[in-house]
Amino acid sequence: MSIKVEDKLYQNRYLVDAERPHIQIKDAAVCAACTTRQCTVCCPAGCYEGAESKVVLTTDGCLECGTCRVICTTHRNVAWEYPRGGYGIQFKFG
Amino acid sequence: MSEKFDVIVVGAGASGNAAAYTLAKAGLKVLQLERGETPGAKNVQGAILYADALERIIPDFREEAPLERHIIEQRMWVMDERSYVGSHFRSDDFNKPPYNRYTIIRARFDKWFSDKVKEAGALVICETTVKELLRDDKGKVVGVEVDRADGRIYADLVILADGVNSTLARKAGFRPELDPKHVALAVKEIHFLPADVIESRFNIKDDEGVVIEMMGKITHGMMGTGFLYTNSDSISVGVGCLLSDFMTQKITPYQLLEQLKAHPSVAPMLEGGEMKEYAAHLIPEGGYHAIPQIYGEGWMIVGDSGMFVNAVHREGSNLAMTTGRIAAETAIELSREGKAMSAANLARYRARLDDSFVIKDLKKYKDLPDLPDLLDSNKQFLTTYPELLNRSARAMLTVDGEDKRSKQKDIYRGFRAERSLFGLIGDAYKLWRAFR
After folding, report:
1. What is the ipTM of this complex?
2. Which residues are in coiled coils (chain B) (predicted)?
């Protein structure tokens, strides 16, 4: 079964804080060397994409759940903050 | 903002609203800060509202709160890929007001609750993220700093109602990072359908509602459950599993949800619906032992931020509202006695919680969060047994010329093939111990 998470996220309402991502990878080299890269599986919004020599993080579709930060237990390589007031996901139903 | 408040409440979810409402109603000068565009914009829940906790705060809430359906039927399904074995409980006793449980849509409900907070006299400011707690040279919390110009705001007491991720409590060192073993990730969608279609599909009328809890192979051996709730003209469907389990396998949360929706027993209930939102949220399931220090010099923690969730009984928002209310009542009492919001005085908050159902219930299941460890080496509970159960039901209900005694023997052999006799007895004992 192939489904695209983008089709789901498309239904959501976001106020994207352009150029100011609220989550950042602390050290790209750590992700490059990471063997599990479980963030690319566990993020419910598919924000993390594994490439050959790095992990690419795009926070636009973030649901602000905290999963990526909590599961990065070995490296603690995710700098996670809430977006600025008023920005990010705005749940219509919740 | 140069004025000083009696209390600052961080967050406008269930616990924050309960606290802010109770405080403002008693005449305290309250500021509530919320990072969403509107109250509720950042909040996610299944969602079931347990009436009792809210009734103790707003006794006549039923007359005006946006409630969806009151629950008259609870279904529990144990599933394999193509089937389920279920137990349903439906009673006309649940159709007599005042009703005990309702489905709600959080964004709508929270907006109403927040209006009540404002009516009670609190100042509610949205689109404002609290960056950190302000502390004096002795470490006492004296206010907060927000992401606006001149962002320092002072108060005698700060109540942290900032949710499961609580960046504030973590940064202040009040609470450690969440343990993946003690937190579940739930994803859900809301599907809109005409009310009469929902009513005919679920055999209900008017404002009656049904909840379905699902377990078994739908979670791929992960510790977790699926759920489906009927709202007025929509259905909430979702699935949640422990993060420590998600960490060990390769299915994404949205694939898991997609498979649940495609299950032959689930798909017909959603057919023709229009999906209008996809949400995700963490649920703190660490139980009693995961509760951090919940008060100190000038601060208290309420709701998910304090890990107040009873995972066994799927209760969270009622614990949130109750901890919010009791924290507020503690502050009101101290204020009336003219006493400081010190750790020694705020200890009354914890003492009151110890006396309430919140701590008593969490204590009852205090060892249950160790269940993941137990199940980790005992995946049969989540995969083998659901499959055997469904296979047995299918065999007994298929009329094909084979006699029933032979079928029974086949079923018994099936269980024995998957699990030794000692294994079966051992499993029964393990479950009994965990839930005792």
Report:
1. 0.97
2. none
Q: How far is A65 from chain B (nearest CA, A)?
A: 5
Asked if residue B76 is part of any domain, the answer here is: no
Q: Are B270 and B191 spatial neighbours (Cβ–Cβ below 8 Å)?
A: yes
Q: What is the pLDDT of residues B300-318, one digit of tens each?
A: 999 999 999 999 889 999 9
A4-10 CB contacts, 8 Å cutoff, 24+ apart: A5/A44, A5/A45, A5/A46, A5/A61, A5/B252, A5/B254, A6/A46, A6/A61, A8/B189, A8/B254, A8/B275, A8/B278, A9/A45, A9/A61, A9/B278
Closest CA to B48 of B318, B280, B271: B318
The pLDDT, as a whole number, for residue B433 is 66
B192 to chain A: closest CA residue: A93
For residue B233, tell me if it sits in a domain.
yes
**B374 to chain A, closest Cα gap in Å:** 20
Residues 276-335 of B with CB under 8 A from A: 276-282
Size of interface A-B (CB pairs under 8 A): 146
CB atoms within 10 A of CB B383: 17
Q: In A, which residues are within 8 Å of B106 by CB distance?
A: 91, 93-94
CATH topology of domain A5-89: Alpha-Beta Plaits (3.30.70)
Tell which of B249, B284, B319 closes a domain: B284
